[in-house]
User: Fold this.
Amino acid sequence: MKSLTAGDLEDCLMTKVSVRRQQISLIVEDVQRVVHQLTTEISHQDIRFQAVPYSDTYNGNIKVLSPSQFLVTVPVRGLAGYREAREQRWRCYTLQGARLSCPLRDPEGLQQWLEVEQFMKSLWQWHEADVNIEGDIVPAKVLQVFRKLVENAVGTCHLSGKVSMLTHHSAVWVAVETATWQVELELVPAVEIPTAWSEKARWPPCLRRWPSRQRAECIKSFGFALLARSQYHWQLSFLQAEQVLLEQLDEDGGCRSRCLQALRQMKEDVWCPGKRPVITSHHLQTVLFWTCEKYPHLKDWQVFSKAFLRLVRKLHKCVSQHFLRHYFVRKSNLLQSASSGDLDAVAQRLALFLKNPQISPP
Assistant:
């Protein structure tokens, strides 16, 4: 370990970042090929699910949460013309369709119900009982159908030696053997809604200076998605809007992107390593977005060492308090379901780093 000065901090971290990016790039290529094969077969078997395309550049359906943990969104087909539900109603059914005497809990934060009648156009298959209960498209039912399709596709595509189902999850997870190491993918059916912005995402707020009003309206035009990741409620997702924000971070010549890359590197190497880290890349980019909003000017992002340590302090505060507000849906805490013990361990490592910034030599 060596103590870091302002001069060598960036060089050390950026050398490590360059190596990481090459490794991740190779892994993403392997993952893309597998995902494209599987989802193409799934799409042939069930018209409601689309194939995830292979891309030589950025693939918006594949999100790297850590080097061994990926989120893959699989778009669904046959739901168009979304509108927000205007009437509230009680839901009193089990996943098997039986009646309950008490209503189910209402969604909170990033969650919402999804009724097939919220779409002006819908395939008749979305009205079928395999995914629909009393007019609701139920994510647990969708996942049940999707899991069986994934299992069948692994066999049909002769990928049994490369892909294995992980059965200890309610969501659909697979392990994939890449040329570098094994990675775990969460495959999530996604209802993409490019024509609207969620009413739960009251963004941007008034009196904020980043991003500009014009940029914010452009970002909102990309819409949002609803992910099947739980039983009754769909999860709001803004992956495309977040990606647009990330791509346009440093148009003024600042060092925001480099700071995020360095933050990710230190998180993976020192603060929160492991296969299923409690802090993921999504948490880190959210920390960056909040910091950009508080420090919107170029002068705050010209000196790498100062900007990087500012981000580390913000991350330490969020992890210590077990609270990281979602950037778009501000009533939602992204650390709400995280293990308190794991968060406290990360906070301790962050505190040690801030007290005496050190890094292993590249």
